[in-house]
Amino acid sequence: MGIIGLSFLDVQVAVWFGKWDQTFFDTMFAYKVAACIALIPIYVVMMGLSAGMRVIQQYMTQVLSMRWRLWNTRVYLRKYLSDNAYYHLEHGENRADNPDQRIADDLAQMSVWTLRLGLDAIQAVTTFLSFAVVLWTIGGTLSFVWHGWHIVIPGYMFFGTTISILLISLVLEKAGGPLVSANYRQQHYDADLRAALLDVRRNSEQIAFYGGEGAEHFRLSECLHRIATNWRSVLAYTWRANTVVELYTGGINIVLWALLIPKLLAHALTFGLYSRINSAFMNVRRSLQWFIENYTDLATLRSILQRLSEFERVVTGRPEGGIVRTPVEQGQIEIRDLVLDRADGSRIATVGDLTIPSGARLMIAGASGAGKSTLLRALAGLWACGAGSVSFNMRDAMFLPQRSYVPTGTLRQALSYPATSDRYELDACEAALEASNLGALVSKLDHDAAWGDVLSPGEQQRLAFARVFLARPATLFLDEATSALDEENEALLYTRLLALLPEVTLISVAHHSGLKRFHDHEAILSTQGMTIQVLS
Ligand SMILES: Nc1ncnc2c1ncn2[C@@H]1O[C@H](COP(=O)(O)OP(=O)(O)OP(=O)(O)O)[C@@H](O)[C@H]1O
C-alpha cells in the first residue's frame, strides 16, 4: 500500500511540475527575472520530494519482490514435494517439463516482473487520469464548420492523443502477438539444454565407458538447434514489434503538432501554455504507451504465467487410477482383487488376493517385465493404474529400490536419510555401518562428499541396508536391493537383517534363487495371475 501511495504522490508532484512550468515560462517570456528566481526554491522542493519518493519506492519494490518470490517458491515447493507430485511429474501421464526451471527461474522472474509491471500499471493509470483532466481542461474545445455542419469537439486534445495511441497499440498487438508463444517455447528449449547438460554431468562415467561423446554431442546439438530455430522466430516477432514501437516513438510528436494547429491559428498559444500542454500530452502519452513500451516484457510474463499455471495444474492434479490404498495401524498386509495396468489400459499383471501376515517373509519372483516393481509401486502409492485394494501399516514401512538415493553432504546425513543427521546417536550409526559391512567408512561419518558418486553401487546398496538397521521398520519392501552385491555380501546382509529385525515383515523382489532360504514363501507373478509356493 505504501508503494501505491507513493505512486499517487509522484503523479501529483508531476501535475504540480506542469503548473510550475506554465507559470515559470510565462514569467520568463515576460522578462520578469526576479519573479523567475523567486520560483526556483519551489522547483527545488518539488524536485527533492520527487527524487526522495522514487528512491524509496524502488527500495520498497525490491524488498517486496524478494518477499513475494520467497513466499511463492515456498508454496510451490510444498506442492511439488507433497503427495509424490515430484514423482508423478516425471513418471505420470501428465508431465510438465523441467520443474526445476519452473520453480527456480520462472517463479523468480514472475515475482519480480508481476510486481514491477503491476506497480507501473497502477502508476500509468493514475498518471493517465490526472493528466487527462489537465489535457481536457487546458486543451480547450475545437469548433469548425464541415459541409455546412457546425462541429464542436470538447477536450479534442485528449481524444486525439488517446485515439492515436490506442490505434498504434492495436497494430502492435497484431505485429507482436505471436511473441508470447515463441517466448514460451524458448524457455522450454533453454531448460531442455540445461537438463541435457546435467545428464552428461551426472552420468559422466557411464558415458566415458561407452565412449558416448559423439552421441551426447549429437543430443546437445539437437537441443541447441531447437533453441536456434525458435530464436529466429523470437527475433522476427521482436523485430516486428520493435519497428512499430520505434516508428511510434518518433512519429507521435507529429500528432502533438497537429493538435496544436487550431490553437496556433487562433493565436491562443503562449510558451507557458505550450509547455504545460506538452507536459500533459507527454504524461498521457507515456501512461498510454506503457503497454506499448512494455509489450515484449508483458509477452514474456504471459508465457511465464502460462508455464507456471501448467505446472500448478499438473502438480495439483491427482493421478487417475483405480487402486485403493488404505492405511491401517498394524497387522497383516491385505491385497484384494489387485490388477496392475498401464496408463493406456493394457494389463501388466493380475495379482488377485494375497494376505501377508506380520513377520512373514515373502519373495516375489517372475520374468523380467512381469510387474514385480510395479506391484511394489502400487503398494507404495506410486502406481494407481489398475483396480483392487491394498491395506497395511504404511507409516511403519520402508521401501528400498534397486538404485539407492544417496544425497550429497556428510556421510552421516546420507546414512540417516530421510531423517535428519541428528536423529540417530553416533554409536548407532557406527553399528549400522559395521552391520552392513561398511566398517571402513565409520571414520568418514562427518566427511562432506558427493557420496552418490564416491560409493560403488554395491556400497550404496549396503548403505541402504544400514539405514534399515537404524530406522527399524515393521515392514520392509526390497526391490532387487542387493542386485549389485556379490553372493557373500548379499547373504551377509539378509542374515544380519533377520538377526537385527527378527519381527520384520519382509517382501523382497529378487532374481537370485540363493535368496529363497531367507524367505518362507515365494510368489511368482505373471499376466495370468500369481502363484504362491511354500519354501522349506
Ligand atoms: N512409467 C511407466 N509407464 C509405462 N509403462 C511402465 C512404466 N513403468 C513400468 N512400465 C511397464 O510395466 C511393465 C512391468 O514393469 P516392472 O518394472 O514392474 O517389471 P519387473 O517385473 O520389475 O521387471 P524387472 O525384473 O526387469 O525389473 C513393463 O512392461 C514396463 O515397461
UniProtKB/TrEMBL annotation:
<keyword id="KW-0813">Transport</keyword>
<feature type="transmembrane region" description="Helical">
    <location>
        <begin position="117"/>
        <end position="139"/>
    </location>
</feature>
<dbReference type="Pfam" id="PF06472">
    <property type="entry name" value="ABC_membrane_2"/>
</dbReference>
<feature type="transmembrane region" description="Helical">
    <location>
        <begin position="151"/>
        <end position="172"/>
    </location>
</feature>
<keyword id="KW-0812">Transmembrane</keyword>
<dbReference type="InterPro" id="IPR027417">
    <property type="entry name" value="P-loop_NTPase"/>
</dbReference>
<dbReference type="InterPro" id="IPR003439">
    <property type="entry name" value="ABC_transporter-like_ATP-bd"/>
</dbReference>
<dbReference type="InterPro" id="IPR011527">
    <property type="entry name" value="ABC1_TM_dom"/>
</dbReference>
<dbReference type="Pfam" id="PF00005">
    <property type="entry name" value="ABC_tran"/>
</dbReference>
<feature type="domain" description="ABC transporter">
    <location>
        <begin position="333"/>
        <end position="534"/>
    </location>
</feature>
<feature type="transmembrane region" description="Helical">
    <location>
        <begin position="29"/>
        <end position="51"/>
    </location>
</feature>
<keyword id="KW-0547">Nucleotide-binding</keyword>
<keyword id="KW-1133">Transmembrane helix</keyword>
<dbReference type="InterPro" id="IPR003593">
    <property type="entry name" value="AAA+_ATPase"/>
</dbReference>
<keyword id="KW-0472">Membrane</keyword>
<feature type="domain" description="ABC transmembrane type-1">
    <location>
        <begin position="1"/>
        <end position="300"/>
    </location>
</feature>
<keyword id="KW-0067">ATP-binding</keyword>
<dbReference type="InterPro" id="IPR036640">
    <property type="entry name" value="ABC1_TM_sf"/>
</dbReference>
<dbReference type="InterPro" id="IPR017871">
    <property type="entry name" value="ABC_transporter-like_CS"/>
</dbReference>
<protein>
    <submittedName>
        <fullName>ABC transporter ATP-binding protein</fullName>
    </submittedName>
</protein>
<dbReference type="InterPro" id="IPR050835">
    <property type="entry name" value="ABC_transporter_sub-D"/>
</dbReference>
<dbReference type="GO" id="GO:0005524">
    <property type="term" value="F:ATP binding"/>
</dbReference>
